[in-house]
Design a protein that fits this description.
single chain, about 400 residues, alpha+beta, 2 domains, 8 strands, elongated
């Protein structure tokens, strides 16, 4: 007998229902549709952000400025953008604010507690997009945070949430612990109503920021943001922010963790995004001894791996300097001989915070032989605190 042929799904409302069901079956928690039109308000905000220099060293944002506000600059045939959200919330397993008090341990942003979300989300979106294309005959393209796509404004247009005063997306159902992904299609689908702002007079996210990274509500100066400083910034961390970083070695969750809307957020359902035990407040003494091979092995498949061992250990040394833990002093001293200047410089600062007398002795023995300018600056400028 001939094989039955599945009829082509050409009705836009039915096609929309099909992709929404499929994405939900793959573990996405919310799905919305936005028209693939220019986002003028987002473009204005982006211009203000870039013109103020708030993007810091993220030059790629300025390079792609013209393409970010209009999905059709990426794909002229795009008619609709299917936005999907997947929860990565820690639930009751981890309290990122309480973890800041464990000074002998490091804190890693919740989104990085398991597998790299780019791989997880993109794989699922590709599955759904492929089935959608097969059923409808429509063209599709998948994007997850690796192309000049303004996911948050598009998700707001698709009704998934609103950009809060901390500039992150907030949902009345999911809080703000979720990832976003986009499927562009050349099929015009019924669009959702944009979400409206529900922050009201609350300013918890603004007030909790340890580095005052918000010049005003809905404005972020990334150069002051701990997530930027620990992940994107490639050189020595500016002195002004080192104490405020505390034990945060990869990202910062403070402005998300205090948001009242997160009382509605549950724990991640996707196993690859659930918080792993070894990523919740790992001991600094374990991290400071990682060489390149050990770093790569420990963080294989994790977003942490992308910053590389030198930046990672730099961050751990800042946390060590803030820890007040004499037990970490031998590990810090060992890193004064590290091959990476960025690591040596951070070790100099950490030692000055933990043991100023030992710092003075090590400076006398090492300073004249230091060939790297940045490390020499650290030896000259590192401040002393009480210690042995």
């Amino acid at each position: 007998m001939p094989t039955a042929v599945t009829p082509r799904l050409t009705d836009p409302p039915k096609a929309r229902a099909f992709i929404a069901r499929d994405l939900k079956s793959l573990g996405f928690d919310a799905v919305g549709i936005a028209p693939a039109d220019r986002i003028d308000r987002a473009a204005t905000g982006l211009d203000r952000f870039l013109d103020a220099g708030w993007h810091g060293t993220m030059g790629w944002m300025a390079d792609t400025r013209e393409r970010r506000a209009d999905p059709q600059t990426l794909w002229p045939d795009a008619r609709s953008v299917i936005m999907a959200a997947m929860n990565y919330g820690p639930g009751d397993a981890y309290d990122p604010l309480a973890a800041l008090g464990q000074t002998d341990r490091a804190t890693i942003s919740c989104y990085a507690h398991n597998r790299d979300y780019h791989d997880v989300i993109k794989g699922k979106l590709k599955q759904a997009a492929g089935r959608f294309a097969a059923r409808t005959g429509a063209g599709v393209k998948v994007f997850v945070d690796t192309a000049p796509v303004m996911e948050k404004p598009l998700a707001e247009k698709a009704g998934l949430g609103w950009q809060g005063k901390h500039t992150n997306l907030v949902s009345r159902d999911l809080g703000s612990w979720f990832f976003l992904g986009a499927i562009f299609t050349d099929m015009a689908l019924p669009a959702d109503r944009p979400e409206t702002d529900h922050c009201g007079s609350c300013r918890a996210c603004l007030d909790v920021c340890p580095t005052d990274a918000f010049p005003a509500p809905y404005r972020l100066d990334a150069r002051r943001c701990i997530s930027y400083l620990t992940i994107e910034h490639k050189g020595p961390v500016p002195y002004a922010f080192r104490k405020a970083i505390g034990n945060r070695i990869y990202g910062c969750d403070d402005c998300l963790a205090v948001c009242p809307w997160n009382k509605f957020a549950g724990a991640a359902r996707e196993a690859k995004l659930q918080s792993r035990d070894d990523m919740r407040s790992p001991p600094l003494e374990e991290l400071l001894i990682l060489d390149d091979a050990a770093f790569r092995a420990r963080f294989a498949g994790s977003p942490v791996k992308r910053i590389g061992r030198a930046r990672f250990v730099r961050n751990c040394l800042i946390a060590a300097g803030n820890s007040g833990r004499p037990a970490l002093i031998p590990l810090v001293i060992a890193l004064l001989d590290d091959a990476e200047p960025m690591v040596r410089g951070a070790a100099v600062w950490a030692l000055a915070q933990l043991a100023p007398n030992r710092f003075a002795r090590e400076k006398a023995a090492r300073f004249s032989a230091e060939a790297d300018r940045d490390v020499a600056v650290e030896w000259n400028n590192a401040g002393a605190t009480d210690g042995d």
